[in-house]
Specification:
2 domains, homodimer, L-amino peptidase D-ALA esterase/amidase, 6-stranded mixed sheet, Ubiquitin-like (UB roll)
Chain lengths: 387, 387
């Protein structure tokens, strides 16, 4: 049920002393024989790119899409750390490679935690031999545990395809979490898939999952999603494989939104009737990232005027008179004006912990969906300080 | 010291029953003789445009930039009210015109309050004769009082130029306030200025004031700034006039940011060293509107990693290694990495209620400044519901 479930993979998680709390903070996913297999990754769009992102990207370029392992740490993002940060990230890969008997560029690296601080490399170097020695086919849960930051629970998935499996683990409780940055995910499969097709499947899966959620509109410096294919189960049906990867990504994304910092609600924002899917996406994102709209949801307030106001400033084609808005099946605005609605039914709907709000622009066939959360006192509490 | 101070203007404010609380909610600025003078206005960029914005814009087009009065109400935004909303806005202008003895299209109209609700026109119609009868050269404070929504105090200004004056009043406690929408301002001058040049001065003043602040990134459906020139003081020096209008706009904008809902700090976000002023502005706005950065300020946390991360996703030219960040004169990052700083001095600085954060991108000469606030528990309390 985890990242080490597909044949050919091992995993481990230990505490090496990065986190002052002593909680697990070093995590590994590796092939069973320590030798490279096909690999693909997608990264943050943030130009303030962290050292591990730079390193992983360079390694995959050098190998043409091959990797034997991914080492991950929590408690420090190794971001905004200059040349030393890249040195440290490369040293982590080299240390894992020495233990596994592969080349340093066949190891990928991810970090999550505070921005602007260097890794305690003595602790990390001392931890890596223990981490590699601890790996096993049952190690997935430990690995998933050791990448947690503000996550209240570990996040894992296993999707069974026809003759193959896709496993995974992830962390993330905000696009850029507060004290601890970032969303990370490592996926594995026993299917035989070339790096190029792995990348296609991963890109498509990420577009409809991790890239279709927004807890607070902030994009981390470290976001990384990696997919490794051991090839032990042979070639899959291409469409079935893509579907399984997409399903694993979406499930992990839903686990993240459901665990977002300080939220009381998961909200599914849908925009339909836009001139294009791109315009629908821009509108949905503007609504999903509006402080005012998010406060309304927290207060169980269906105030559709704020939704309309955000759509009016989303930079998309918009005609007020054609707009309708509904919460679930309850229409709150029609033709750009307030609609009559059963107030008791609406109040009951708004009290739920999962809302679906749909804005129909009445202009075309474009649709989009963004998963998000409400804005709460607890979110502010979690994000007021780094300590 | 107010909107009715320049020669040739009167003002009034009364309660007509729009607000259930019985607080003042109907406001007027009019020429002393009730006859039209040169006028200019700038409006919200929101495509979900409210009926009074549509009406005022149409009236200024019809008259070629002439107006005798502005009627304003609080307690209801008359936005998302369809054809009825435009009818109501026009009826307000017609009623004022009948009392003053001018034409309906020589009256402008502004509304602020809840979106999606129609005006109680019986109350408004009954109030207008009383409002017009109450107007006087001392009525500015009453007028400024009657446009308040969540504002904790009325906002007024008088700038004395060389032989002329610019007076004004405004309301606004968020770009789109919560229960009560919008930022409105009415400015008056006794200088003799043609409508075309009034518009130039107003556009320039607004760009560096109302358009350079962002409390929460939300743009209202009703935002309007109007400038009327009675001509009683004769032609001003053009540059001095533009400077006085800009000063009046900036002072009112500062009053708004200083009164923003639930804030504990006013923050002056400056981006320098960008490739262009436009890129600097995009970067400053991304930082100023970041939920995470705003939470940091509330927590007195100088965590510059979040500032860097926002700049990295602002869609502008950005090289992490060239970035420096300072709070006041205290440098917290240099060359893209954390700088040594006097921690006690930094803690003392962050405890102040006015912060200046400067990000130097190290790339060019582009600069920009955005005034904003922190994100607090009280902001959420004010925005959780409409009631």
């Amino acid at each position: 049920m985890t990242v080490s479930s597909p044949a050919g993979f091992t995993a481990a998680g230990i505490a090496c002393g990065i986190k002052p709390s002593g909680d697990p903070d070093l995590s590994l996913v590796a092939t069973t024989d320590g030798q490279p297999v096909a690999a693909a990754a997608v990264f943050t769009q943030n130009r303030m790119t962290a050292a591990p992102v730079v390193t992983t990207n360079a390694h995959l370029t050098l190998t043409g899409g091959q990797a034997a392992a991914v080492i991950l740490n929590s408690g420090c993002a190794n971001a905004a750390t200059g040349a030393l940060g890249v040195e440290d990230a490369q040293a982590m890969c080299a240390a894992v490679a020495a233990e596994l008997g592969c080349r340093a560029e066949e190891v990928l690296v991810c970090s999550t935690g505070l921005i602007g601080y260097s890794l305690p490399m003595d602790s990390v170097r001392a931890g890596i031999p223990k981490l590699v020695a601890a790996r096993s086919a049952d190690g997935g849960p430990d690995a998933a545990e050791a990448i947690r930051t503000t996550d209240t629970h570990r996040k894992e998935i296993l999707v069974s395809g026809d003759g193959f499996m896709v496993g995974g683990m992830a962390k993330g409780a905000a696009m850029l979490a507060p004290n601890m940055a970032t969303m990370l995910a490592v996926l594995t499969t026993d299917a035989t898939v070339e790096a190029e097709h792995l990348m296609e499947a991963l890109r498509a899966g990420v577009a409809e999952s991790f890239n279709a959620m927004s807890t607070d509109g902030c994009t981390s410096t470290n976001d990384t999603v990696i997919l490794l294919a051991s090839g032990e189960a042979g070639p899959p049906d291409a469409a079935a494989f893509r579907a399984a990867v997409a399903e694993a990504c979406l499930d992990l994304a839903m686990q993240m939104v459901g665990d977002a910092e300080g939220h009381t609600k998961v909200v599914d924002v849908r925009v339909v009737g836009a001139l294009s899917d791109d315009e629908a996406r821009a509108g949905a994102r503007k609504v999903a990232e509006s402080q005012l709209v998010k406060c309304s949801w927290y207060g169980r307030d269906p105030y559709w005027g704020r939704v309309a106001s955000e759509l009016g400033t989303a930079g998309i084609t918009f005609e007020p008179d054609k707009l309708s808005v509904r919460y679930g099946d309850l229409v709150v605005a029609e033709g750009g004006v307030t609609a009559r609605v059963d107030e008791d039914a609406l109040a009951a709907y708004m009290a739920q912990d999962h809302l679906e709000v749909t804005a129909n622009l009445g202009l075309g066939d474009g649709t989009a969906r963004i998963l998000t959360n409400d804005l709460t006192h607890a979110y502010i509490d979690e994000n007021m300080g780094t300590s």
